[in-house]
Amino acid sequence: METHTDTTSHTHTTVHTHTTADTHITAGAGRLESPHIRQAFGTVRALVGAYGVLGVGVLVTVAVLAMTGHAVTSFMWGRSAGVCASAAVTYWLTGRAAHGARWAYLRMRIISLVMPPAIIAIDVLPGTLPAWFILLQAGCALAIGAAAFPLNGARLRATFVKTR
What we know:
Blueprint: H1 29-32, H2 35-67, H3 74-98, H4 102-123, H5 131-146, H6 148-151, H7 154-159
Helix pairs in contact: 2-3, 2-5, 3-4, 4-5
């Protein structure tokens, strides 16, 4: 009598998913691997990165001016620090969206449309800020505003289409 022992090992893969009330929160993995989608998110990352770099530049300029005895206001400090903080959050959201989080993508679409006019509208209040500050902040507004084009483009919208 012959005995046969099965020595084959089986590999099991466990996939962890996060669920919320809205089960359609992510883009399909295949869609995210498209070269066009990766390029679009690369462009968004670069523009959001530029927004952050310009924001840090404004904050550093305010700090240098303050340290060298020039007049800077608490409004300038708060405004430039706020732009830096929003750039960090926006960059994080971009990363989440690039990994398929629909909620992050939707927030990025809104931010890219709302932030530029908000930055400009507050900065151009008569007599509140010097021209150099307004120009640097306008650069920030342009960078985040330019991200609205790929974010609201047909390819990314189709990637994150809501299904029910």
